[in-house]
Design goal:
With 200 residues, the protein is of the alpha/beta class. The chain has 6 helices and 8 strands, in the order ββββααβαββαααβ.
C-alpha cells in the first residue's frame, strides 16, 4: 500500500453550505487537503496542524486502485431501498475548490431534478487531493450537518490508508441507509439516474 506523510487537518471538514434554491438548492459537505508531501505543501490551518499517513491519491494510482464493479454494485444495492439517487464522479482536473466544482457538476448532471430532491453526489479530485459530498435539500433537511461530518470523516480516514474503494463503498452504504430511512423505496419508483462512475 502506497503511503506517505501529508499535512492533515484535525477536523477535515468544511461544514455544510446552503446554496440559493434558484441555483442548485443543495447542501454540501467537503473534505479537503490530502496533498502529497513531496508534491506541494498544505496551507496550514491555525491550531489544527498534524501529521498523518496518506495513500497516493494521484489520478492514475487512484483510478487503478478502484474496484469499479464493487462501487457500482454498492450504489445499486443502496438504491434498491430508496427513491434517492447516489452518484460518484471522479475529476482528472486540478480542482482547488472541490466544493464549487462538485456543486457545478451536481447541477450539470441534473441531480436537482429528482422528485424529492434527494440526490447525493460524491465528487473526488485526485490531482488536487480533495473530495466533496453534495446532497440536495431534501436529504439535508432530514439528516443535518452531523450526518455529513460522520461520512466525510470516515472517508478521510480510509483515504489516508489508501483504501479508496472501501472509502467509497462505506460512504455509499451510509448515504444509502439514510436515504432508505427517510425516502424508502416505493412501488412506482424508478432509477432516475445511472449508477456508473462518471469522469471528466
Amino acid at each position: 500500500m502506497l503511503a506517505i506523510a501529508v499535512e492533515a487537518v484535525a477536523l477535515l471538514v468544511f461544514f455544510l453550505f446552503q446554496w440559493e434554491e434558484a441555483e442548485v438548492g443543495a447542501v454540501a459537505a467537503a473534505v479537503e487537503d490530502f496533498p502529497v508531501a513531496d508534491f506541494r505543501e498544505a496551507e496550514a490551518v491555525p491550531g489544527e496542524e498534524a501529521r498523518a499517513e496518506a495513500g497516493d491519491m494521484k489520478t492514475k494510482n487512484f483510478i487503478s486502485n478502484l474496484d469499479e464493479k464493487k462501487i457500482v454494485n454498492a450504489i445499486a444495492e443502496a438504491e434498491k431501498k430508496t427513491s434517492g439517487e447516489i452518484r460518484v464522479y471522479i475529476s482528472d482536473k486540478n480542482r482547488d475548490d472541490a466544493l464549487t466544482a462538485a456543486k457545478n457538476r451536481f447541477e450539470k448532471l441534473g441531480m436537482t431534478k429528482t422528485k424529492l430532491r434527494n440526490g447525493v453526489l460524491i465528487y473526488i479530485a485526485p490531482v488536487s487531493q480533495k473530495f466533496a459530498i453534495v446532497g440536495d435539500s431534501g436529504i439535508h433537511q432530514k439528516c443535518g450537518e452531523d450526518f455529513w461530518k460522520v461520512i466525510t470523516d470516515g472517508m478521510g480516514n480510509l483515504f489516508k490508508e489508501g483504501r479508496f474503494t472501501d472509502a467509497l463503498v462505506q460512504a455509499i452504504g451510509e448515504v444509502g441507509a439514510a436515504l432508505a430511512k427517510h425516502f424508502p423505496h416505493q412501488g412506482d419508483d424508478s432509477n432516475e439516474l445511472p449508477n456508473e462512475i462518471l469522469r471528466d
